[in-house]
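Private note to self, pasted from the team thread so I don't lose it. Backbone tokens:
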């Protein structure tokens, strides 16, 4: 399952007006309706009711639901709120494959065949098992990186350099890619610093992330711009695919394009670029 999500906005599940606003954002790829950290303890049941109602309505962006940890008492109650309108569950703080398998089994029991899973890697234990987590179930459609929780677990300072999380971010991308999945980068916490967000998003794309999570609607357009191929990039991809397909019809498995050797892996990246371009034009 290819998610093709660039911008993923966390929306507190107990805030009806925020949910309404997010679900009306045509530029947003995914609204993550949050039942976990974004909801105060006393508002959990109200959030489940609001999320269930939101999943039953048409929406411009796709809808994910962030639950509590799969091994927690609250997880079953969270899944009870899930409706077929949910594209995926975001599983927070996943540390081992068994959590993913438990979640997949519960979804199967409830007949939610179309709901995918996106485990979130948020601590050192999860990072060390990220490849196992990504391969734990056919329902896994991507991996997410929770940078703030990860940094807290390592005891990193609040004012840290980008380089401090480069290893972890790259490791999540590699683990996802090993299972043919997308990876989604962590939030940029400085709401007003859009230039910093743009730079961090551009770096995330260079690292191999397919998209980025965020916590404020003003970040959506910046993230979309960073992860949308430029028109020149899309046009080059279109010419490359056409040249390769012509070569295949002529009986060759690799071609020379603009002075470089092109084989199937290069073409698959080009095809993905075109899918992203088409998604952005909708």
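Design output:
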């Amino acid at each position: 399952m290819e998610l093709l999500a660039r911008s993923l906005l966390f929306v507190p599940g107990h805030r009806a007006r925020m949910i309404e606003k997010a679900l009306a954002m045509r530029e947003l790829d995914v609204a993550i309706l949050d039942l976990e950290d974004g909801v105060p303890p006393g508002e959990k049941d109200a959030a489940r009711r609001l999320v269930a109602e939101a999943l039953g309505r048409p929406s411009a962006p796709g809808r994910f639901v962030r639950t509590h940890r799969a091994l927690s008492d609250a997880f079953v109650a969270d899944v009870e709120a899930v409706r077929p309108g949910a594209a995926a569950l975001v599983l927070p703080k996943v540390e081992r494959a068994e959590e993913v398998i438990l979640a997949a089994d519960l979804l199967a029991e409830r007949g939610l065949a179309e709901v995918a899973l996106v485990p979130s890697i948020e601590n050192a234990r999860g990072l060390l098992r990220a490849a196992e987590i990504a391969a734990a179930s056919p329902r896994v459609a991507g991996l997410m990186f929770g940078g703030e929780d990860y940094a807290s677990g390592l005891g990193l300072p609040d004012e840290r350099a980008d380089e401090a999380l480069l290893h972890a971010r790259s490791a999540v991308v590699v683990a996802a890619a090993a299972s043919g999945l997308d990876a989604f980068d962590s939030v940029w916490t400085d709401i007003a610093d859009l230039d910093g967000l743009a730079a961090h998003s551009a770096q995330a794309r260079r690292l191999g992330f397919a998209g980025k999570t965020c916590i404020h609607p003003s970040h959506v357009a910046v993230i979309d711009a960073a992860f949308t191929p430029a028109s020149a990039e899309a046009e080059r991809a279109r010419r490359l695919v056409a040249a390769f397909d012509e070569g295949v019809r002529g009986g060759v498995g690799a071609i020379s394009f603009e002075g470089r050797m092109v084989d199937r892996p290069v073409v698959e990246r080009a095809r993905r670029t075109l899918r992203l371009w088409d998604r952005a034009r909708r």
